[in-house]
Amino acid sequence: ETGVTQTPRHLVMGMTNKKSLKCEQHLGHNAMYWYKQSAKKPLELMFVYNFKEQTENNSVPSRFSPECPNSSHLFLHLHTLQPEDSALYLCASSQDQEQYNSPLHFGNGTRLTVT
Amino acid sequence: DQQVKQNSPSLSVQEGRISILNCDYTNSMFDYFLWYKKYPAEGPTFLISISSIKDKNEDGRFTVFLNKSAKHLSLHIVPSQPGDSAVYFCAASLMEYGNKLVFGAGTILRVKS
């Protein structure tokens, strides 16, 4: 596998469920990101990890809980979500979050539907 | 309030012609700008970037122009090809903050053959 891989591609969950999104990068990068894309809205930065340390939490509700056990893996744990949380969740990586000219490499996303 | 705006939700262009995608920003502190392209069911991919010390950057068929006084940038694709049909996202950042990008909502480009 190369690049950034996200699983699952699609997820339907009820509001009382607990689920996790997984992201893995095979690029040797040190920074990983979670973005949310709601319909016809800009991509919103949720969390950033740089060298396994969280460097950004963009006022995300606590029902979203990120985990970065190492520089290659990133998780987003979900619990008691709301229907308005339905969106495309994109993971990305870059060489170093502090390098402004290091492009983000995105995964294909997880399409989440909360019923 | 959106700091990066792409006011045209969609654009349709004939193959071989020029495609011009526009982007406006409100934060005058932004000093680095990027364009990403996204095909359906795929993640965005980096296309081209420009820093605020330049007003033009070219890479093959793709050229980005930056007008700092107008807080406006544009992406020109010449000549347009059917494979260029995708969603194009404009993004901006402050270099000192690294890779924390602020994205626009995207413009859907359709290149007709």
Report on this structure.
The complex is a heterodimer of chains A (115) and B (113). Chain A has 115 residues and is mostly beta strands. Chain A is 0% helix and 56% strand. Chain A is built from no helices and 11 strands. In chain A, a hairpin with a 6-residue loop joins strand 4 and strand 5. By secondary structure, chain B is mainly β. In chain B, the strands form 2 sheets. In chain B, strands 2, 4, 5, 9, 10 and 11 form a 6-stranded mixed β-sheet that branches. A 5-stranded antiparallel β-sheet of chain B has the order 1-3-8-7-6, with no helix packed on it. At the A-B interface, strand 5, strand 9 and strand 10 of A face strand 4, strand 5 and strand 10 of B.
Keywords:
heterodimer, A: 115 residues, four-stranded antiparallel beta sheet, globular, B: mainly beta, six-stranded mixed beta sheet, five-stranded antiparallel beta sheet, 11 strands
Integer-rounded radius of gyration of chain B: 13 Å
Q: Biggest chain pair contact, residues each?
A: A-B, 28 and 29 residues
Regions with little confidence, pLDDT below 50 for 5+ residues of chain A: none
Number of helices of chain A: 0
In what range is the share of β-strand residues of chain A? over 45%
Gross morphology of chain B: globular
Count of helix runs of chain B: 0
Residues in helices of chain A, as a percent range = under 10%
Largest sheet of chain A: 7 strands, mixed
Total strand segments of chain B: 11
Instruction: Give the end-to-end Cα distance of chain B, rounded to a whole number of Å.
Output: 38 Å
Number of strands of chain A: 11
CA-to-CA gap between the ends of chain A?
32 Å
Oligomer: heterodimer
Percent range of helical residues of chain B:
under 10%
Q: Structural class of the secondary elements of chain A?
A: mainly beta
| Largest sheet composition of chain B | 6 strands, mixed
Shape of chain A: globular
